[in-house]
Structure formats: structure tokens, C-alpha cells
Design goal:
The structure holds two protein chains of two kinds. Chain A is mostly beta strands. Chain A contains no helices and eleven strands. Chain B is an all-beta fold. Chain B is globular.
């Protein structure tokens, strides 16, 4: 079974440009999560999609946006790139909203997309 | 908002010894889950262990165990018989009703031969 796959592995952009990152979840998983991990820091929650809808959003400006497609894959778009957007962007998937059983919602992460903004 | 605190930026342990990585959380939600993930230098986050807030027993998974002290709001990870491959960043995370994880800042563990 393929794991969570992310592309591209590395991306270099300049300030003001736009970046698009892609994520394919594990087959059968309907939830996709995006996290930002700046160098030396922990993971900051960005976005959560489930069944094609945005379910929750972290404390990030609107230039961070995304979507989830009917096949449950997802895109993260970052507009008007700034230097501080340089980070590892991690995507994770889970089986989806499961009421009451947190343990069933283990996130499986991809290897990440490293974005460098020059 | 959830707050996860990992007070140890770095830890060293001798190979084959046990090590405890600290984690405290701060939630008023009665139902929550606590997770530990490992992040090797490759960057991928690897799930290690889970503890539910209503679980009576401490969780164990092979060499990993979770020392869950609910009254203290702590969920420390214990790794027994450390191996060189255990050298990595370790993140504690909490999940409440919002179905997403909030992570601590991590602890870098170095296993010394």
C-alpha cells in the first residue's frame, strides 16, 4: 500500500511568487492535513480537509489556501511568497472524521515538500 | 487553544539505556488524545504511540511506553533499551474535538554509542 505522497520534494521560489504543493493520501483516507515546519521549529497546523470541504484552519494569513479534490488528493497554494514561508510543508492523511475515537485518527505523514523562498 | 509543552530541546542517552522525554498539555476538554511522533533527519513523521484521555492503562508499543499522569496533565514518552536508530526529533501532540493535532516544539534525542 502506497503511503502519503507529496510533490515536489523541493521547490525554490522568489518573493512574491506563488507556490503549489500537492499531496496524495493513503488509499481510503478521506482527511488531509497540512502542516508547516519552519527550520528548527515544531509543526504548525495549517489546514484540514475532509470529504472535499475545509474543516479547520490554523492561524495563517489568507494567502495560504488549498483544496481537496474528489479523489481526496489535495493542493496547498501559497500566494505572494515571503522569505519566512521557507519551511518544510508536511501533508498527512487519516481515515476521516470518526466521532469519539481519537485513537482511530492516527495521522500518517508524507516526507514533505521543502519550500525555499529567495 | 491547545498548548503542548516539551521542555527539553535536546537529550542524550547511552545506547541500551532508557530515556524519558517530557510532555505536558493544557486542555479543558474531557476527551482528548495524546500522540508521540518521531521525525528522523529524512523529515517524515512516524507515529509511535497513542494514549486516550479515558484509557486506564498506560499505552505501550514495543520499546515505547507512555507515562500518562492525567492529574498533572503530563504524557511522557519512555524509550527503553535505546538504539542508535532512535536518534531523531520527537514530538508530542494533542488532539481534541477538532480532529487535528497540535504539536509541541520537539525534543532532539541523541543516542551515544
Amino acid at each position: 500500500e502506497a503511503g502519503v505522497t507529496q510533490s515536489p520534494t523541493h521547490l525554490i521560489k522568489t518573493r512574491g511568487q506563488q507556490a503549489t504543493l500537492r499531496c496524495s493520501p493513503i488509499s481510503g483516507h478521506t482527511s488531509v492535513y497540512w502542516y508547516q515546519q519552519a527550520l528548527g521549529l515544531g509543526l504548525q497546523f495549517l489546514l484540514w480537509y475532509d470529504e472535499g470541504e475545509e474543516r479547520n484552519r490554523g492561524n495563517f494569513p489568507p494567502r495560504f489556501s488549498g483544496r481537496q479534490f474528489p479523489n481526496y488528493s489535495s493542493e496547498l497554494n501559497v500566494n505572494a511568497l515571503e522569505l519566512e514561508d521557507s519551511a518544510l510543508y508536511l501533508c498527512a492523511s487519516s481515515p476521516g472524521q470518526l466521532a469519539g475515537d481519537h485513537g482511530a485518527n492516527v495521522l500518517t505523514f508524507g516526507a514533505g515538500s521543502r519550500l525555499t523562498v529567495l | 487553544a491547545q498548548k503542548i509543552t516539551q521542555t527539553q530541546p535536546g537529550m542524550f542517552v547511552q545506547e541500551k539505556e532508557a530515556v524519558t522525554l517530557d510532555c505536558t498539555y493544557d486542555t479543558s476538554d474531557p476527551s482528548y488524545g495524546l500522540f508521540w511522533y518521531k521525525q528522523p533527519s529524512s523529515g517524515e513523521m512516524i507515529f509511535l504511540i497513542y494514549q486516550g484521555s479515558y484509557d486506564q492503562q498506560n499505552a505501550t508499543e514495543g520499546r515505547y511506553s507512555l507515562n500518562f499522569q492525567k492529574a498533572r496533565k503530563s504524557a511522557n514518552l519512555v524509550i527503553s533499551a535505546s538504539q542508535l536508530g532512535d536518534s531523531a526529533m520527537y514530538f508530542c501532540a494533542e488532539e481534541t474535538g477538532a480532529n487535528n493535532l497540535f504539536f509541541g516544539t520537539g525534543t532532539r534525542l541523541t543516542v551515544i554509542p
